[in-house]
Automatic annotation (TrEMBL):
<dbReference type="InterPro" id="IPR006597">
    <property type="entry name" value="Sel1-like"/>
</dbReference>
<dbReference type="InterPro" id="IPR052945">
    <property type="entry name" value="Mitotic_Regulator"/>
</dbReference>
<protein>
    <submittedName>
        <fullName>1929_t:CDS:1</fullName>
    </submittedName>
</protein>
<dbReference type="InterPro" id="IPR011990">
    <property type="entry name" value="TPR-like_helical_dom_sf"/>
</dbReference>
<dbReference type="Pfam" id="PF08238">
    <property type="entry name" value="Sel1"/>
</dbReference>
Length: 176
């Protein structure tokens, strides 16, 4: 009986944990060849972080991209990050934003944080403090401590508003 891609992936994870990187790489490739997105993601990490292999950002990007095309949010974020910083691929802010949006739409907090930062600084998008605030808040609600700090840091007194008086203070976030 043939093993499922999940079983193969789990076996590769066990092998990596025990330091048997060569066999883990071989088995991960089998799961990846069967289209199992987490295996593609893990192969990207294997080459990005040099886990038992020589570091190769171009190869890492290729695996992240293949996983991102299946809809895996973490890989979409990593592809966006690679495009933003030109790691393993030429820098392209427009493509970075595109992939950040794909992951952020799945409520992936790191992608939401990166979108917030891009809106805050006008990188790949028009500078928009309101959009930055919106994405920092989403990221904070997803558990990103740095985003929570940024939300608190950005609690500034806005311009005078007839509805709220001279101080329109941002409401505290409800974090579950």
């Amino acid at each position: 009986m043939a093993q499922s891609a999940i079983d193969i992936f789990n076996r590769a994870s066990q092998l990596q944990a025990t330091g048997n990187f060569g066999e883990a790489l071989r088995i991960l490739q089998i799961a990846a060849d069967n289209g199992y997105a987490p295996a593609l993601q893990r192969l990207g990490d294997t080459f990005s972080y040099a886990i038992g292999v020589e570091q190769n950002f171009t190869k890492a990007f290729e695996f992240y991209y293949r996983a991102a095309c299946t809809g895996l949010a973490i890989s979409q974020y990593k592809v966006g990050w690679s495009f933003q910083f030109g790691v393993g691929v030429p820098r392209d802010y427009n493509k970075a934003i595109e992939f950040y949006f794909l992951a952020a739409d799945q409520e992936y907090p790191l992608a939401q944080f990166c979108l917030a930062w891009c809106y805050e600084h006008g990188v790949g998008v028009e500078k928009n403090p309101q959009k930055a605030k919106e994405y920092f808040e989403k990221s904070a609600q997803g558990g990103m401590d740095e985003a929570l700090y940024r939300v608190g840091e950005n609690c500034e007194i806005d311009e005078y508003s007839a509805q709220t008086g001279p101080y329109n203070v941002i409401q505290p976030l409800e974090i579950e």
